[in-house]
Amino acid sequence: MARYGFSPPTRVFEAVGAGACLITDEWKGIDLFLEPGREVLVARDGAELAAHLEALKPSRAHEIAQCARKRILAHHTYTHRAIEVHELLEGSLQKVEATE
Predict the structure, then answer these.
(1) pLDDT in tens, 65-74
(2) CA 4, CA 24: separation in Å to the nearest integer?
(3) Could you please report the per-residue DSSP string of 34-67?
(4) CA-based nearest residue to 74, from 17, 9, 35
(5) Which pTM does this prediction carry?
(6) What gap in Å lies between CA 89 and CA 75, rounded to an integer?
């Protein structure tokens, strides 16, 4: 994944899948998995982290956590990745068979 410009940390998916409100550093591609401000909080530096922590109320943290968990479980589980790999391999195999 790093070759394509970003490498999503597995811990992001594990924490969100477990129902945590996540504050993470900024990394390219995060918006492909979670919507900043709605499903995850992004801190570009220590000052932003402190601001998030100061402003974050339990109800807002719960809301962010629930939105993120819903998205991760709907689109980004190991089962989803296995299906994608299977479909890619099946498509590649069909292309090879069609050219033979």
Answers:
(1) 999 999 999 9
(2) 20
(3) S-BTTTBEEESSHHHHHHHHHH--HHHHHHHHHH
(4) 17
(5) 0.77
(6) 19
